[in-house]
Amino acid sequence: MGTPIIDLYHPRSQALFDYWSSLPRDGVLPLRSSFLPEKIPQILPTLIIYEVISPTFINFRLAGTAVRERMGLDPTGKNYLDYVSAERKVKAGQSFFAVVDHPCGMRVVSNHGMASGHKKFLEVLMLPMKNDMSEHPIAMCQSNEIKPEKEEIFQDPDLLENITVMRRDFIDIGAGISDFKD
User: Which InterPro entries match (predicted)?
Assistant: First the structure.
């Protein structure tokens, strides 16, 4: 493991991938109980831990400080899909299941409208873990700005739900890749 078959843009994405790759495994996936975020402090501000409960409920178990600041709120305990536009909710939920059910990694490059009124260009890396601490699968995520020098502010609040997926890459972690398509 160690090097994904795609080039990750942000060093924190690579740091999560490297640490995740080093963890003890139960088959293809590392165990959630072995993930000790304090071992990789540089990723903490942009770390998100999702608990994939159902196609309509993706629970924010943890959101780092930079993620909370970007969103303008603390989403911990809330449904990720509540922050996705109505026309993207089904596909967004399916993308999480593509990662945890297959299992495989996923990198998404997208534009995100934030509750703060800002628009950010992000690289999001998602990696599945076997949840030996509860019944629902876990997806570890890094959400990093990759073009922070150009910031756009929306005046129209309807545009804040705009998420444009620029590219989606799946990463073979030992079980092939998902055939999910947007």
Answer: DUF1457
CATH number for the domain harbouring residue 92: 3.30.450.20
User: How far is it, in rounded angstroms, from Cα 98 to Cα 109?
Assistant: 17
* Number of structural domains the chain divides into: 1
Is residue 120 within 8 A of residue 70, CB to CB? The reply is: yes
Q: Residue 174 CA to chain centroid, in angstroms?
A: 19
Q: Considering the domain boundaries, does residue 2 fall inside one?
A: no
In a domain, 163, yes or no: yes
Residue recorded with tokens 């990723």:
43
Q: What are phi and psi of 62, to 5 degrees?
A: -155, 140
Give long-range contacts, CB 8 A cutoff, 24+ apart: 53-60: 53/136, 55/90, 55/93, 55/94, 55/97, 56/81, 56/89, 56/93, 57/81, 58/92, 58/93, 58/96, 59/136
User: At 7, is the pLDDT very low, low, confident or very high (cuts 50, 70, 90)?
Assistant: confident
Q: Report if residue 91 sits inside a domain.
A: yes
Output the pLDDT for position 2.
Answer: 53
The answer to the question of residue 182 being in a domain is no
> Hunting for tokens 């080093």 — which residue is that?
22
Read off the pLDDT of each residue in 66-92 and give the average, rounded to a whole number: 91
